[in-house]
Amino acid sequence: MKATHYSISAFFPAYNDEASIGKIVHAAAELLPKLTDDFEIVVVNDGSADQTGELLSQLAQQYQFVKVINHPTNRGYGAALISGFANCGKDLIFYTDGDGQYDVGELLELLAVLNEEVDLVNGYKIRRADPWYRILIGWLYQSMVRWFFSIPLRDVDCDFRLFRRSLVDRTTLTCDSGAICVEMIKKFQRQGCRIVEVPVSHYPRVKGKSQFFRLKHLRRMLFQLFPVWWKLMVAPVVLRCLHFIKLQSQARGKA
Predict the structure, then answer these.
(1) Per-domain residue ranges for the chain?
(2) Which secondary-structure segment (H or E) carries 239?
(3) What is the dihedral of CA 81, 82, 86, 90, to 10 degrees?
(4) Of 42, 112, 196, 225, which residue has the fewest beta carbons closer than 10 angstroms?
(5) What number of helices (H) and strands (E) belong to the chain?
(6) Yes or no: domain 8-254 corresponds to CATH 3.90.550.10
(7) Which residues contact residue 193 at a Cβ distance below 8 angstroms, ignoring those fewer than 6 apart?
(8) pTM of the prediction?
């Protein structure tokens, strides 16, 4: 008996993840048939310089339900997500990173709380498996975006999510960096998205370094966050104030 009546797109953005992406795809290929008869696996290779592309080509030949999208050059995490979402065609989208820091098997924990009253199930790390300085930077970043964007999630950058594809179908995402996570959640929230949070495990990276903590990436992400903050948080307040002033002016003119 299948665990869900939904169809599922499992999506994994990958950048220089030859050491982990194969294991992730194999795990998903074993798990998904147990959950639904209608599924697919989508992987975006974001201009990897290692053997990620070659490995994904082999996986696409091995599994007919694996779809690989190749970016000729590295376009950024947000660009990889946008490409992946655009190529997901099932009812639900489950995505996590291709670096192996999350367990695909914990998709079951997300599905367990998904119902007609929930649009998005967002994971949060039980314990972050990173060096102390990354934990500190992550905490500062999380605190900043929660305050500036009024996002109630405890871990907005936990990229272990399950949500209805209809959310991205009616959402325009613009950030090509890691800022996309804040943009996405805030725009979902403005649509009235109903969110539930679930604790998930977090593991050390198998190989390579996180792109999130590089100075160049952080600077780019912060530069992209500002216009998103202005458009989603400041501009609506300004417009309401201007509308109020206009109404007051019209009322005085009639008096």
Answers:
(1) 8-254
(2) helix 235-254
(3) 40
(4) 112
(5) 9, 7
(6) yes
(7) 119, 120, 163, 167
(8) 0.87
Backbone angles phi, psi at 155, to 5 degrees: -150, 75
In whole angstroms, give the CA distance from residue 77 to residue 60: 22
Residue 46 DSSP SS3: strand
Distance, CA of 25 to CA of 31 (rounded, Å): 10
pLDDT at 1 over 80: no
Query: Using one digit for the tens of pLDDT, what is the confidence trace for 145-160?
Result: 888 888 889 898 899 9
Closest CA to 167 of 122, 125, 107, 201: 122
Give the strand pairing for 66-71 and 39-46.
parallel
Residue 9: in which H helix or E strand, if any?
Answer: strand 8-14
Q: Could you give the CA distance from residue 70 to residue 33 in angstroms, rounded to a whole number?
A: 25
The single residue listed with the structure tokens 């950058």 is: 157
User: Which tokens belong to 96?
Assistant: 């996590």
* Site of tokens 């405890």: 154
Q: What percent of the chain has pLDDT over 70?
A: 90
Per-residue pLDDT reduced to its tens digit, 201-226: 998 877 655 555 566 676 777 888 88
Q: Based on C-alpha coordinates, what's the Rg of the chain?
A: 20
